[in-house]
Amino acid sequence: MTIPPPSPAEPPTAFDMRAFRNALGSFPTGVAIITTTGADGKPIGLTCNSFSSVSLEPPLVSWGLRLASKSLEAFRQADAFAINILAEDQKELSARFASGAIADKFEGVPWTAGHRGLPVIAGSVATFECDKFAEHLAGDHVLFLGQVARFDHGRQEASLVFYKGAYMMLTQSLRELAASGKLDSVHLDQARRLINCMLLRLACQNGSPEDFDAIERNIAEIENYSDAAHRAEASIEFFRLVTLAAHNEVLVVVAETLTTLLRHVLQTDATLRARPELVPVRRKILAHMRERDPDAAEAEMSHYFDQLRRGAAAREVHA
Ligand SMILES: Cc1cc2nc3c(=O)[nH]c(=O)nc-3n(C[C@H](O)[C@H](O)[C@H](O)COP(=O)(O)O)c2cc1C
Q: What DSSP string runs through 5-36?
């Protein structure tokens, strides 16, 4: 397949650069730190939000570097680079690696040597270790293409988002909302009940035997834990598995937001205790899922939330 050469570009229209950047900023992006090693073997890195996936086979990704960057020569000389996708709790790292004023950006930053010695930053949501595939001069930037030699998707944590020139930290904001006590626990329970019952009905319809087996293993795991904190985390996993069995990407996002809130509420709930009476209820829910009986499953899930509410009310009385 021959790609026709681009038609000669029209002479550039004088753009209002601020307006142009604002328009570009209306596209929310993630934030990454691109790293490589210099000729002296020292780690080099900078913050970047121009990262993009390019091709699956072969696995190619790209990012753009300003010609004005002090790191330009190092990246042009290097044969490999790593992409470290940042989590919400790595906002400080993003600011550090965006600073042109810090001499050693890696000082005090935990990292390990990956593919070809590339610096892999600890705590990233995902990392892509790449061999340089190509580089193209593109206006006032150089576009680097990398072929992914190794990748890791280590942390199931919310990613840092950059939008309109600012960092968006949805989960952090939700956590602050929960921590501020502004979140009514009755409303949280109501939302959980409604959304999880809806997801459960979908899971009865769309769930695979493998999905149900995963839930079975999770229920056994909950029963094996004696301490409330581990049981609570495994119970959150029960709802995540039900959500996955619904096979609806949009509802997964909704459920994850709820899970973030719930996890925060449970982590700060000093009265939390193991709830052995909920074990048979989860087993009945799973049995109805395998029978693909959404009505019976939903009735059992409602019973589950009734028990939770009763337990919470009892704890409030004795608190
Ligand atoms: C959120 C964010 C995204 C950025 N994205 C890019 C980018 O895609 N490409 C780039 O060249 N610079 C980008 N920068 C700016 C560089 O991080 C910054 O200029 C660089 O780290 C300065 O250091 P250097 O001159 O040593 O490279 C970004 C900065 C921030 C805060």
A: PPPPPPPPP---HHHHHHHHHTS-EE-EEEEE
